[in-house]
Amino acid sequence: MRKIGIIGLGHVGRLLAHDLVTTDKVDQLVLIDQDDDLAVGLKADLENAQTALMTSTTITIQDYAALKNADILITAFGDSQLLKEHQMAELTRNGQAVEEIAPRVKQSGFSGIVLNISDPNEAITAYLQQQLALPPKQVVGIGTTIDTMRMRQAVAKAAQLSSQNVSGFVYGQHDGEKVFAWSTVTVNGQNLEKSINGHHLDQNKLGINADLDNWYTLNGLGYNASAVVVWTIQIISAILGSGELSVPLAIYQPQYEGYVSFPTLINRNGQGNPLLLNLYPVEEAAVKTAANAIQQQIAILQQGGEEND
């Protein structure tokens, strides 16, 4: 039985619930939000949609106890409109959300994998792990997965190739101190120092183009949803399946003494082995800078939590 919980039913949470149900990725779905009417409405809407499907998903709402035997818990709370103020505007608000939900999740007896898609992703993921007291490998965040895919797409467009031909990762911090690790990027096995498909690729321009995709989405829609949901489902499929997926998730990395976005394998046990690729010295230093920034954000959350005790 594939059982998944989602806490937070904003744009991303609702779209994720819809896609999980309509693509037969879940047998039991637990939906939780601070707005009771929203949860009731979403359940009715999804159940109506199932009249056109050959599959059936059991949907439970507003019941933390139902999380006890869930395989995966997705945390998707937040207000993307705050990002128009500044990149880290959601930090305090989402930290408070963690403090509110963590005792109830712990009380439920949940012991599965937590996948956080709330922002700032790395800091909130770390705070969730602390508050839930689960092993770090069981609490991961989507991290710089979408940043990485935007980077690969920017490279592919510049080289006039499919993004499937591009590999490489963005490290560090989503929507913060992210690190375009060009040392890891290859196109058809060639690094960017060589002419690719007859094109010389400017790394600075590639980074700008990758960031522009994020700006266009937030400016036009006011939120990011589709890419986040599609990649969340890819990660869910890896956890529920028998294979492994390599993505740059927000994970606990001992060498940085905390959470940071870093390429890793994800499987049914949660975080697998990290991918230890050789970075340029300047890239390694930039990842350390990102890790320090994340630690400062966590300190802010911890201080706020102590004041609320």
UniProtKB/TrEMBL annotation:
Domain of life: Bacteria
Record keywords: NAD
Residues noted as binding NAD(+) in the record, renumbered to the chain: G8, L9, G10, H11, V12, G13, D33, N94
Active site: H174 (proton acceptor)
One term of GO molecular function: L-lactate dehydrogenase (NAD+) activity
Keyword tRNA-binding: no
Domain Lactate/malate dehydrogenase N-terminal: from-to ranges: 3-141
GO biological process: lactate metabolic process
InterPro entries, A to Z: L-lactate/malate_DH (IPR001557), Lactate/malate_DH_N (IPR001236), Lactate_DH/Glyco_Ohase_4_C (IPR015955), NAD(P)-bd_dom_sf (IPR036291)
Record protein name field: NAD-binding protein
